[in-house]
Amino acid sequence: MQKGERVNFGSKVGAILAAAGSAVGLGNIWRFPYETGNHGGAAFILIYLACVLMLGMPIMIAEFTVGRHSKASTGRAYKVLAAGTHWKWLGYWGVLAGFLILGYYSVVAGWTLEYIIEAVTSGFANKTPEEFVEAFRSFSQNPVRPLVWLVVFLLATHFIIVKGVKDGIEKSSKVLMPILFVLILVLVGCSLSLPNAEKGLEFLLKPDFSKVDSDVFLGAMGQAFFSLSLGMGCLSTYASYFGKETRLGHTAFSVGVIDTFVAVLAGLIIFPAAFSVGIQPDAGPSLIFITLPNVFQQAFGGVPALAYVFSVMFYVLLALAALTSTISLHEVSTAFLHEEFGLTRGRSARLVTSGCIAIGVVSSLSLGSMQEYTLFGKGFFDLLDFVTAKIMLPLSGLLVCIFVGWYLKRSVSYAELTNGGKQKVGFLGLYMFLLRYVAPIAIALIFINELGLI
Ligand code: TRP
User: Which residues are within 8 A (CB) of 202 and not within 5 positions of it... i.e. 6 or more apart?
Assistant: First the structure.
């Protein structure tokens, strides 16, 4: 979206879909299942759902309020709403978080392109589960191939950012996202029909609270921020393009429901399949890339043509879902450089893309040839993921709660939520209570708990 052409989304549905396009991505289909797997299954999901409801929803509405009221991208919004204060750093912090996330997110987005090619060239046919594990390992540790895909993906994002987002991506995502959804439903059916699928279901649905420790809370909170695109001003930037009629509470609720639905369905595809073919649920970032090919290979009743069509479509749509998310991440940094330093949009975008390629290359190599270089026991990829999702995003979420809940005048929130008094809103009291007390205290407690102070 170009500055200076501050166009509003065409409709209320357009606003919801654009925000949902940012939210639904690899976070739901790749990250949610592996975090669930790492943290023991059903109990993690319950805590995650609580985080979405109690932290995610109020903070999303708060970010919408900041964006629509300031009519500015996140780098500038706090300057507009709190001129002459240090709140501007909250905007800058978000920009930095988004930039770092884009760096390693693009690595995984690049993997989806490799898997499109595999699907198109029938690379999944006649492989055993062990061969899928090995194929992913040798691909992700290859020093060149993943880097090529990373660059291709970032250049695609770059191209769209420079050309303008409105027509291409927004219109196509209105068609593509529903198709992705239907495909996911079909795959859930396939996965559940695999032998021993019930073990996966049990892992997802039967909570084992003995596995819950402080890491589970931190993981669930980080995942909620990451998946809902919160804590870096992505959605507040989008909200600056919302029209007067858009209902903030309703939009946040819709995005939350869509995002959560896709994540849970992704879990329903991946865990039955993982248990069926004997892949450990805590396989980490490789989880979907080694379980899904098995679903395609085994679940279509031996009809290779069906397996072929579905696998190609799935990876294409996954790459597109990732693209609508990388665009939203890229846009925030690009708009920031453009508005703060007066660089042209093209130049700003080039700087962001080059920076992300550099971060992406190091992240990607940290999974292969640079594996031995670690900091705090983590490689660069894992470290970036940890620092952004589990520290930077929740911290900025905490500050957003304080900013909108305590600093901004209540009348601003009321005016934004009720669209200037035109809309009756029944949840104002509850929203303010969650925003002022529940969310900030919960985030603070989770941090303190993780540090071992209580
Ligand atoms: N939410 C996206 C996903 O689930 C990723 C994403 C886009 C994001 N914008 C963000 C994550 C802002 C954190 C902050 O794939």
Answer: none
Per DSSP, the residues of 136-168 read HHHHHH-SSHHHHHHHHHHHHHHHHHHH-SIII
3-class SS at 5? coil
User: Is 323 in a helix, a strand, or coil?
Assistant: helix
164-169 mean pLDDT: 60
CB 207 within 8 A of CB 41: yes
232 lines ligand 1 (CB under 6 A): yes
pLDDT, position 164:
67
pLDDT tens per residue, range 247-256: 999 999 999 9
The number of folded domains in the chain is: 1
Ligand 1 atom index nearest CA of 328 = 9
Amino acid found at 249:
G
Q: Is the pTM of this model over 0.90?
A: yes
Question: Domain containing 359: what range?
Answer: 3-450
Distance from the alpha carbon of residue 294 to the mean position of ligand 1, in angstroms = 27
Give me the pLDDT at residue 6, please: 54
Q: What is the domain-level CATH number for residue 243?
A: 1.20.1740.10
pLDDT-above-70 percentage for the chain: 94
